[in-house]
Amino acid sequence: MSASAIARRYAKALVQLGAEEGSVERFHSELTTVEALFASNPALGALFANPAYGIEAKREILKDVNARLTASTTIGNFLLLLLERGRIAALPQIVASFSSLADDLSGVVRPVVTTARPLDEAQVAEIKSALEKNTGKKVALTVNVDPALIGGIVTKIGNTVFDGSVKTQLTRIEDTLQKG
């Protein structure tokens, strides 16, 4: 089974548990905090991957980390389960899958809008409103600026890209002219 499929299974189970407890957002927050801790401390991840440390020592370290982060018992038990199953290294993929599944559950879409110049608040609100109307979901918008676009806007929602940039239009014109 692929790593992404395994991560999705763990994430799905945790989202279902969170939905039952009404704690999906809290679980998401706690998981991202733990993931950030592991990302900022590569030695911690290396410790859990090192076979020289026994499972009991790793378990105690993980319990200490959980206590310092004041994570819920459910997340603490989930992390211990990952440790015992040898899946702690898959935490970033699990968190990404969890985020996606939690968004689906709560009806949230997270599009990324890229423009050539910074947008003012009114423009961002207008784009957000249009995306909410077209998707039928709540929109958590991320706006990036890329001067290479020359003008226009590129919107990415999941795997779908809507490219209305001047750069792409110029590229299409160039291709058409070259092909005759």
Automatic annotation (TrEMBL):
The gene is atpH. GO terms for cellular component: plasma membrane; proton-transporting ATP synthase complex. This protein is part of the stalk that links CF(0) to CF(1). It either transmits conformational changes from CF(0) to CF(1) or is implicated in proton conduction. GO terms for molecular function: proton-transporting ATP synthase activity, rotational mechanism. Its main location: membrane. It is found in: Cell membrane; Membrane. Transmembrane segments: none annotated. It holds the Pfam family OSCP. It comes from Geobacter argillaceus. It is a peripheral membrane protein. This is ATP synthase subunit delta. It comes from the Bacteria. Keywords: ATP synthesis, Cell membrane, CF(1), Hydrogen ion transport, Ion transport, Membrane, Transport. PANTHER family: ATP SYNTHASE DELTA CHAIN. Belongs to the ATPase delta chain family.
